[in-house]
Amino acid sequence: MHPKALLEACTELVRLTLKFDHPADAVVSKFFRDYRKTYAFGPRERAALAETTYNVLRNKLRFDHFAPSGSGPKERRLAILGFAQHLKEHAAPQPASTQPKRHQQPGSQALDFLISALNKQEAAWLEACEAVNPTDLMDRHRHNMPEWLVEPLKAQVGEGFWPLVERLNGGAPLDLRVNTFTDKRADVQHELKLAGIKAVDTPFSPWGLRIEGKPALSNLDAFARGAIEVQDEGSQLLALLLDAKRGEMVVDFCAGAGGKTLALGASMRSTGRLYAFDTSAHRLESLKPRLARSKLSNVYPSAIAHERDDRIKRLSGKIDRVLVDAPCSGLGTLRRNPDLKWRQSPKAVQELTEKQTAILASAARLVKSGGRLVYATCSVLPEENEAIAQAFSAAHPNFELLSVADTLTELKVANAGSLCTPDGLYLRLWPHIHATDGFFAAVWVAK
Predict the structure, then answer these.
(1) Is 230 within 8 Å of 202 (Cβ atoms)?
(2) CA separation for the pair 295, 267 (Å, rounded)
(3) Domains and CATH numbers, the chain
(4) What is the DSSP string of 15-53?
(5) I want to staple 199 with a disulfide (CB 3.0 to 4.6 A). Which of 127, 209, 215, 418 is the partner?
(6) Interacting residues of 176 by C-beta distance below 8 A, sequence separation 6+
């Protein structure tokens, strides 16, 4: 694809994404569908378009700072900066004999493709932007976070703020969960190796494999037969915490597309009954093909109107284990969804905490005496996490809070204490410490 056409497409995709009308991944997918005939995208063009857009979202404040000194439409200037970063990150190492001369900027050879699409003024502007030392910039242009999010993060991680920012503004590895109902992790790892894919065991989840890059998993037999599912290691640990067993009655209260549902079904060895509830029938529809591949027969997806639906009432006090992976801000997933930091707001978070409180209280009614309740989010904000858990404990003396550190130790998770808050009560995962998305979880047992 000609460089000018590719930059033109990048500019349009950046423009559409920055409207923030819809999640970035949905905008990117729709763009590929709508323009597939116009541009005839191949795999490399799709990767360049997507990564350019995500670079703009991750570095928006810095790129906004550079943009006024350039010329032409702002979206084009942002696309140029995002595309330049993509090219540098994916540049092949140069032999010593072809290393750039001392007067050239680092990565300048990788930028030749982009520069061929620019006019002289744009090329000079890009060179000036590339010459800026990031450490000379103001903090806001380095961390690229909205100010309302900066202080809560600094308060929690202290000196770890800049390492956290670096991780959140970078990409994420690809984690897989092995379907232990049908396959063993070591066997799948060997199968991937034969397919040319290097996979290493995840350090904490006994079900996980981590791979670099983005191989076409859908072409693999392991994927087609349901031996693997894409799932972040942190998400796997949430399912592990529930410790669902054979023959039990279990509820995944906010199942969504069912990633954790499938993990729970495998740990139950496809026995008992596993209800997958969600208020979105559309999300549950995407569970069906995954469920068919998994070979599980104990899963019962069911769309509900709200957390007080009559289907919920009929199961009151009858369930052994309930997982509440509550709707949240998603700010622990910024490596994958950088648009969330611009689409969320303090007001939206406040509205979410009210919903989280109501959902957790309703889900708790399902749990029978001696049963386990797990509340979880993929947020890094205390008001969606510890505050919700503490309020629930105060309002529900019939539930005893368990130590997550002790629970994970009993489940033979390595270095369980390192995954938790200092008191061991809650699961607290951080991208810069654990190489997972940001997750929180609390565990109770009903008296």
Answers:
(1) no
(2) 13
(3) 3-93+106-144 (1.10.940), 174-230 (3.30.70.1170), 233-446 (3.40.50.150)
(4) HHHTT-SS-HHHHHHHHHHHTHHHH---HHHHHHHHHHH
(5) 209
(6) 188, 199, 208, 209, 210, 211, 217, 228, 229, 230, 231
Q: What is the mean pLDDT of each run of 10 residues along the chain (447 residues)?
A: 92 97 96 88 91 97 95 95 92 48 49 92 95 94 96 96 94 95 97 95 97 89 96 97 98 95 98 96 92 96 90 94 97 96 97 97 97 98 98 98 98 96 98 97 98
Say if CB 301 and CB 291 are below 8 A apart.
yes
Scanning 138-258, the segments in alpha helix (DSSP H) are: 139-143, 147-157, 161-168, 185-194, 221-224, 233-242
Instruction: Kindly compute the dihedral angle of the four CA atoms of residues 22, 25, 26, 31, in this order, to the nearest 10 degrees.
Output: 110
Cβ(175)–Cβ(441) below 8 Å: no
Number of neighbouring beta carbons within 10 Å of residue 336: 16
Q: Which of 113, 150, 106 is nearest to 131 (CA)?
A: 106
Of 159, 161, 158, 157, the C-alpha closest to 140 is 161
Pairing of strands 299-303, 273-278: parallel
Q: Which residue type occupies 241?
A: L
Q: State how far the Cα of 310 lies from the Cα of 305, in Å rounded to an integer.
A: 9
Residue 302: closest CA among 325, 329, 274, 265? 274
Whether residue 378 lies in the annotated active site: yes
Catalytic residue chosen out of the listed positions 10, 254, 378, 420: 378
Return the pLDDT at 98: 41
Number of H helices, E strands in the chain: 23, 12
Distance CA 293, CA 306 (A): 29
> How high is the pLDDT of residue 95?
46
DSSP labels, 68-123: GGS-S-HHHHHHHHHHHHHHHHTPPPPPGGGPPPTTSPTTTTTTHHHHTTS-HHHH
Whether 48 contacts 9, CB under 8 Å: no
The two three-digit tokens of residue 83, written as one number: 């595309």
CB 41 within 8 A of CB 82: no
Strand segments (E) across 285-438 = 299-303, 319-325, 367-377, 399-402, 427-429
